[in-house]
Specification:
The protein is an alpha+beta fold. Helices cover 56% and strands 20% of the residues. It contains 8 helices and 8 strands, in the order H-E-E-E-E-E-E-E-H-H-H-H-E-H-H-H. A 3-stranded antiparallel beta sheet has the order 3-2-5. It has a 3-stranded antiparallel beta sheet with strand order 6-7-8. A two-stranded antiparallel sheet has the order 1-4. The longest helix is centred in the middle third of the chain and has 74 residues, at 169-242. It is found in: Membrane.
Length: 315
């Protein structure tokens, strides 16, 4: 009985192993290559799959998601014989699991070597300045070459990026000095332009200010002249409306004499000839005023009536 039990146990174990090998579960976004006696049979997709145990075997499991592979810095010589180190990052995706397994031994290593050689060919036709300023151009050229070469491997290169471009230390120092000199030059130019513009604006402002001041003075003088003319006209009209006699005019003339003599500059002033007539008229007026105040009465030659006193006229 014991040998039979041992045989049954062995059979159960073999059946269990066969079941395990028969059922293959493939994760999502993955694929598996099945070989039968070393020859490609089919590709297993995501989900539950049945294979023939001990006859079919799983050769390779491939991730179909987009992969990101950074490559170490590679020394590249530019057209002007300068060595720069360039870091690259490749974004690729396996589109054909069978081609990626059988068309190339190691597609990651193949992509790396192809990237290095293509990068050297592209950078070799550029000088250092163009290399540093043409990343988009280099990325596009790399992507085009890699996508064309890796298509038969079942690989699609989605994106190529230059992570860093490092020129030699001496070149970096020279570039920093040049950039510093350029910045100083631009700063000096901007300062000069600002000073020039400020001077121009100041001159324009002074010009406008003088023009406005002159216009204001002209308008003020015109208004003053117009006011004085109006005042003279008003006084003239008032004088003519009041019909003054010679006595009043003589008195006003004498009142203006002290004002004419005022001021330090008036060392010499001329008395007009009309002042004698004014004084005569004023003396006559004062004499008449004295007679009105109580002096002897002047008789009227054409009238023989009794003495009468002239009454002063009341304005």
């Amino acid at each position: 009985m014991e040998p039979i039990i041992i045989v049954l146990i062995i059979l159960v174990v073999l059946v269990f192993i066969a079941l395990i090998k028969t059922i293959q579960v493939i994760p999502q976004a993955s694929a598996a290559i099945v070989e039968r006696f070393g020859r490609y049979t089919r590709t297993l997709n995501a989900g539950l799959n049945i294979v023939v145990p001990f006859i079919d075997s799983i050769r390779n499991r491939i991730d179909l998601r987009e992969q990101v592979v950074p490559f170490p810095p590679q020394p590249v010589i530019t057209q002007d014989n300068l060595v720069v180190n360039i870091d690259t990052v490749i974004y690729y995706q396996v589109t054909d699991a069978r081609a990626a397994t059988y068309e190339v031994a190691s597609y990651i290593q193949a992509i790396e070597q192809l990237t290095v050689t293509t990068l050297r060919n592209i950078i070799g036709g550029m000088d250092l300045e163009r290399t540093l300023t043409s990343r988009e151009e280099i990325n596009a050229a790399l992507r085009g070459v890699l996508d064309e070469a890796t298509g038969k491997w079942g690989i699609r290169v989605n994106r190529v990026e230059l992570k860093a471009i490092e020129p030699p230390t001496s070149i970096q120092d020279s570039m920093e000095k040049q950039m510093r000199a350029d910045r100083d030059k631009r700063a000096a130019i901007l300062t000069a332009e600002g000073t020039r513009q400020a001077a121009i604006l100041t001159a324009e402002g002074e010009k406008q200010s003088q023009i406005l001041r002159a216009e204001g003075e002209a308008k003020a003088a015109a208004l003053r002249a117009e006011g004085e003319a109006q005042a003279v006209r008003t006084v003239f009209e008032a004088i003519h409306a009041g019909d003054p006699d010679q006595k009043l005019l003589s008195y006003q003339y004498l009142q203006m004499l002290p004002k004419i003599a005022e001021g330090d500059a008036n060392k010499l002033w001329i008395v007009p000839s009309e002042i004698g007539d004014a004084l005569k008229g004023l003396s006559g007026a004062m004499g008449n005023f004295g007679n009105l105040g109580g002096g002897p009465t002047v008789p009227r030659p054409a009238d023989g009536n009794a003495d009468r006193r002239e009454k002063p006229a009341i304005d």
